[in-house]
Amino acid sequence: MKPTIKIFGILLILAGVSLIFVPEIIFDFLDSNKEEFWVYIVAIVVRLVLGAILILSAKQSRHPLAIKIIGGMFVLAALIFLFMGQQNLQEFIATVLTVFTPYAPFVGLVSIAFGSFFIYSFSGRIRKK
């Protein structure tokens, strides 16, 4: 499960770099696909799977409590998306795109920080105390 989390961290870093230098790639993609049913399904499934992986792998990380909390937030977000429905998720995505477009470089830095945190948390050996 560690490699999956590291790959997710790398993807977050790449998304962050994209948001800093060419945010149109991500924002245009989301804007043009927000009404597709597969976006709704992927938003739920990816959060559920990554949340479960983070929760189950937390003990193998350098910061188990933080990883468990983040994993729980992923699962909670997936459940919220599930119960809010596709139409409300589309409206949410439209709102987020409008609000965050001017702050794309900052959002990119946050994405890079989270990706780096995931890679760091699951790299190297954990010393038993």
Task: Outline the structure in words.
This protein has one domain. By secondary structure, it is mostly helical. It contains five helices and no strands.
What's a concise summary of this model?
The chain is mainly α and 129 residues long. The protein is built from five helices and no strands. 17% of the residues are buried.
Question: Termini separation (Å)?
Answer: 23 Å
The mean pLDDT is 94
Radius of gyration: 16 Å
Strand percentage: under 5%
Order of helices and strands: HHHHH
Keywords: Membrane, Transmembrane, Transmembrane helix
Transmembrane segments: 7-26, 38-58, 65-83, 103-122
Main features:
129 residues, globular, 5 helices
Topology:
Layout: H1 2-21, H2 24-33, H3 37-57, H4 64-100, H5 104-121
Helix pairs in contact: 1-5, 3-4
